[in-house]
Amino acid sequence: MVTEILQFLIHNHNMKQLSTKEDMLKIISKRYENYFPEIFCKAFEKTDDTFAVEHKCASEEDIWKILKKKQIYPVKKHFISGELWKLLTQDLVRLKYQEYRQVTNSDPPSYEFLWSP
Hints:
Elements: H1 2-14, H2 21-27, H3 36-51, E1 57-59, H4 60-69, E2 77-78, E3 82-83, H5 84-94, E4 98-102, E5 111-115
Antiparallel strand pairs: 1-5, 2-3, 4-5
């Protein structure tokens, strides 16, 4: 399973396409779905080691939790980054540094940030 996920990740990287969890779950059988986090981590370790590729991906909720601990709030203007909400959800998206999208089948809707290829 690790090899199949690794091949998928490499293919998407070469095609400059994003890799989603939903797509990877289609590759592994239902029987191994519960082991997905382990399979995914092992595949990522191999891409990190072999190709010097660093992967980062975070939920919007996690981003705001981290920033809140640093007393940085989405609607408050920050002295360095300005309006952080706009920077993260619009400016960096427009410049194609990241994607900001709704998590598939999330109810209530939740969003995630994905670094672009």
